Amino acid sequence: MNNENNTNPQSGINLNMYGWNEMLNQLKEESLYSTLAHGRVSIVHRTCYEIVSENGLFQCELTGNMMYGKSDFELPCTGDWVIFQPFDENKGIIVDMLPRERTLYRKKSGTVADKQAIASYVDKAFIVQSLDDNFNVRRVERFMAQILEENISSVLVLNKADLDFDRQSVEGQIKHIACQIPVFFTSIRQPETILRLRESISEGETVVFVGSSGVGKSSLVNALCEKSVLLTSDISLSTGKGRHTSTRREMVLMNSSGVLIDTPGVREFGLAIDNPDSLAEVLEISDYAESCRFKDCKHINEPGCAVIEAVNSGALDSKVYESYLKLRREAWHFSASEHEKRKKEKSFTKLVEEVKNRKDASR
């Protein structure tokens, strides 16, 4: 196996194109299974994982230890790098997973402190909004907050730019976002807009697409790849949306460029943030917060609060401020619940160890 370029002349798969590098190679060398094959998770089914490796595509399952010894969010997700034991022409068993980096999470629906891994080893996240009734700047702020938590670069993609829309109104609503991250207006009916977006993706770079159903993520992926790699359907006349939307996270390779991960549209994107204070920077509150009288100011009703003064004077948009308070409450609730959960888990582990030690001592 040649770890330098990870190209197999028979399969023709160069893992460098999928993001494999020397750092990952070193992490693999530290594994107990360093002599086995490695690859990247391209699609996750319920109990099966599709793996791209230098020797081709493999359908893999987990070992019992991995399946039952990890929390749900620790199980492999799209984008993870894994080590596996091939046992058939295109089948294998995943025996280890390289430590994750730049993983996009969200709070698991219906839970207080559980989180769900969406994609890992992500370099950029394209937050896709459509310029129709679906446009929602508050949703963009929510995605941005979670993405920046993991040091992933955000890009705002305003899709369906061929529709009639009030550009001045849209630009006014995203003013506080556009000064922080790149913004692209795109349409699959305007090839030059797709070309500009394609030029922003480098070789070996991984880009995840996030957004609600019907904003055109799969169509954008197809346009960027210049071929139909993901299923889409005609636009529904009653809803104005594509009738097909992604139901799974799927990774595809662009020609001579980066890796794209399409994700299912989400109705709810709960924050899984450990540090609620980071939201001040995301929503451009921190510049004002530095001038508050008290360092621990919560920006609600404290005397000498520069943030509230900025809202009252019109310097800070009241809707952005309200969004900040809402997201901070949600992030604080998750963080506090997560902390309590870890505390209980540590107590339980300690109790198990004490019982085990007593048993060992009585023998």
TrEMBL record:
Domain EngC GTPase: 120-267
InterPro entries: G_CP_dom (IPR030378), NA-bd_OB-fold (IPR012340), P-loop_NTPase (IPR027417), Ribosome_biogen_GTPase_RsgA (IPR004881), RsgA_GTPase_dom (IPR010914)
CDD domains attached to this UniProt entry: YjeQ_EngC (cd01854)
Subcellular location per the Swiss-Prot or TrEMBL entry: Cytoplasm
Signal peptide start-end: none
UniProt GO BP: ribosomal small subunit biogenesis
GO cellular component: cytoplasm
Cofactor binding notes: Binds 1 zinc ion per subunit.
Cofactor(s) the protein requires to work: Zn(2+)
Protein family (similarity comment): Belongs to the TRAFAC class YlqF/YawG GTPase family. RsgA subfamily.
Stated name of the protein: Small ribosomal subunit biogenesis GTPase RsgA
Native organism taxonomy: Bacteria, Pseudomonadati, Bacteroidota, Bacteroidia, Bacteroidales
